[in-house]
DNA sequence: GTGCTGAGTTGACAGATGTCTAAGTAGGCG
DNA sequence: CGCCTACTTAGACATCTGTCAACTCAGCAC
C-alpha cells in the first residue's frame, strides 16, 4: 500500500490559482508537485535536468554536483519521478533523466497572475 | 534564533528553470516558496486568497471552508506569510489577507518552459 | 471596568522527511 | 565465470511538520 499514488497522468487540472478557488482533489495533485519542488536539492536537480543541453542528463552528471551520497540523490530523483516532474530511462550502464515539460507548463499556468493590471 | 528567515524581499531571482541550472542560494529561496505551496490546505488557502473578489479575504471566511481548527488554519497562514506569498492586515476585529502577486508571477516564470517548440 | 468574539501563540504528539550506511540489482569487460 | 561500476532499495535515525487542546492577545459592546 503506497503512501502516495504516483501521478502518472499528470492531472494538474488547469484553472490558475487567481481565477477560482482550487477544489480539494485538484489541490492535492498540484500540491504534491510543489511539495516535490519544495526541497532545494530537488529543485536544483529538476533545474539541471530541465536545462540539460541534450534534453536529458545522466545521473552520473547529477550526483557529483552535490555533497550528498548516491542513495540520497537517488531518493530525490525518485520523489521527482513520482511527482510526474521527470522521467528516467536506463540505457546500458547509465540512467538518463529528462523533464516532463507539459507538467511544468501546467504548473506554471496555475501560478499565472498576468491578467492582473 | 529563527529556524528560517522570513522572505521579506521576495527574491525569487529570475531565470527560468529550463534556461540554466539554478544556483544553490536562489534554489533555497524558490524552494521555500514551493514548499509553502506543497500542502493541499495551504494551496487552497492561497487560491482562495488570490482569487478573492475584493482582492482580499477575511480569515473568518477562510476557516469555515476547512474541517480544521482555527489554530491550524492560523499556522498555515503563517507559513504562507513567511514564504512571502501573502500579506495580512488587521482592521478592527478581523484580519484580512491578500496575495503577493509579484511573487506568484516570479514563481510562475521560474517554471516557464514555453521556448520549447 | 466585564464580557464576548476573532485571531494568534504555545506545547504536545503522531507521522512524514532527509540523510546516511549497508546491501541489492543491472550492465559492461576481461 | 568473476569483478567492477552505476544506480536503486532497505533500514535506521534525527529532525521537521501538521494537527489539536489550552491559553493569550486584540478589539468591540455594554
Automatic annotation (TrEMBL), chains A, B:
CDD domains: HTH_ARSR. The keyword Kinase does not apply. Keywords: DNA-binding, Transcription, Transcription regulation. SUPFAM superfamilies: Winged helix' DNA-binding domain (SSF46785). Signal peptide: none annotated. Residues 22-117 form the HTH arsR-type domain. GO terms for molecular function: DNA binding; DNA-binding transcription factor activity. Pfam families: HTH_5. NCBIfam families: HTH_metalloreg (NF033788). PANTHER family: ARSENICAL RESISTANCE OPERON REPRESSOR, TRANSCRIPTIONAL REGULATOR, ARSR FAMILY. This is Transcriptional regulator. It comes from Catellatospora methionotrophica. The lineage of its organism: Bacteria, Bacillati, Actinomycetota, Actinomycetes, Micromonosporales.
